[in-house]
Amino acid sequence: MKKKIKFKTADLCDQHSNDLIIIGQKFNSYGKESSFCGEISTIRCLNDNSKVREALNTNGCNKVLVIDGNASTDCALLGDMLAEAAFSNNWSGIIVNGCIRDSDVIAGIGIGVFALSTIPIKSIKKGIGDVNIDVTFMNVTFKPGDYIYADLDGIIISKKELNIM
Q1: Residue 94's CATH number
Q2: What is the model's pTM?
Q3: What is the DSSP letter of 71?
């Protein structure tokens, strides 16, 4: 069962700022949930969402999938079927350094989805990509096992899980 955690990144920054990596909000929110958090899992892929599909079809255990698509606008790395799979498989959220599609449908799915933009073109499927490695974009390194907290104000990363209750 997906746990609903209410928090504001602004409050977390006030309480823990010395221990956080803080990223201003550069993404658009597309999912039904505008705030989400969890342990980071990563994928690096360029215009091929095969590894994204594999990951989102496994139990996400309330994790956040960070997808580094190299900010490509050539195709979408996430669509409504994968967002629905993520929701059904207990992922807390998805951050895409790239594009998604089916944004109108994704808006009704109870998961957080942040991406740079939308495009209607689907990705190629060649099974190419790297899973659970450090990925760097926007001058920030996202490390599997660290924790991420995202809302409309920004994204913060912590080496340990924050007490937000």
Answers
A1: 3.50.30.40
A2: 0.96
A3: T
